[in-house]
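User: Hey, quick favor. My workstation is busy. Could you predict this chain's structure for me?
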Amino acid sequence: MIGKKAYSLYFLVTDFAAAMLGWVALLVFRLSVGATSVDQASAALQGGVFVGLFWVILYALAGFYKDVLRKSRSREIIYMLAIITAGGLIFTFLLINRILLDNEDLSEYRRLYEYLFLYLIFHLSFSVLFKLLIMGYSKYLIRKKILHFKTLIIGSDKQAADVYDEIEKKSAHLGLLFLGYVKASETNGHKHAMENYSLPCLGNLSDLEALVVNQNIEQVIIALEKQEHDTLQQILTSIEGYGVRTAIVPDIYQILLGSVKITQLFGTPIIEIKTDIMPVWQQAVKRMIDIGAALFVLTVGFPFLLAIAIATKLTSKGPIFFFQERVGKSGFPFKIIKFRSMYTNAEQMGPQLSSTHDPRVTPWGRVMRRTRLDEFPQFWNVLVGEMSLVGPRPERQHFIDQIVKVAPHYKHLNRVRPGITSLGQVKFGYAENVDQMVRRLKFDILYIENMSLAMDFRILAYTVLTMLQGRGK
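Assistant: No problem, here it is.
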């Protein structure tokens, strides 16, 4: 029995196999009608590997390998039909370009189009067969709770009881394994509806974050009463950044407003909070741009980096590089790398934020900060996946602890990789105290809620302009 996370690889392998088998079936057909020789078919068989890779990459960019155990079979097959059609159009475009480049008659390639159509039929047939077999088997395991998703209900009264009762009786196919419920309010002298079930009460809202972490919670269902709605922000803040799938049971007024999309996931209307910030293909392109830029700067730009390193070493005593622990995506710590811009032992009195006329900054360090040259070693952090070119600037845990006391929604930033530059840094600049950090926070949240490649390019352009004008600090 393989784990839930390994199923993505399982689906990837079978998709590759389906593409290859479709290719083999086409070659066999061409041999049977005398359209090709055995030697030609053998040579073409090797090209099937690249065909298989093409489809797997296309499926990955379309998000096929994300959250595979939660998907509907019918919806997945319809989506696959659309992707295979799109892939067929790409092949057709490549074929037409080959004809135009070779200056050949389009009518002579009619048979190739027929073979392309036949291949897509073979490919789709094998793909649907494998998809139905694998998804059918996984759904069976989910119904039997052999595969399950650890679930927590937040709420303890009628809404929570109704949802729990309905899921347990009618929705075994969802595979939700309820570990318990969390009270959103005190009893106030009356018995809560959830007390009529054997499901244990695991605590109050103050215990929520620890429960999510320690119990490896995968799904949270928020079922609040009307008088408990003011706790919603606290709940969402507590589970933010932990990759937990979240659904809210709305009241009739929220449904009537129509400002949110309601899904019939449990037979009960719910508002499902989407954690996907960017489309999968944009996430993939963003990461490829990160890797490409990091490799370019660290290799082609090495002489430039070496010159900065030598200047750093010659202008003040101490190491060339400065390492400091910061908090990254999902709250995981990492060591950020910079060219040292301060005198050694600059924080003997404890963690401090830099200011405009900070005496701890060296003269050369002041030049580097104005032009952002001290940030260039962070391209290594980008290359290894700890950071991105664009994203909220990472902070130290010491200051995060102070920020969340004033702005608990800071945890929203844990959803993405931190960046070398950010909208907050472009619009606000470096923060000199916690109050300025909180004020800058709104720009970083604005970025996360509107993330796109277009916005990344705009932020990078503004950052380059800031460097050229020396307006950093």
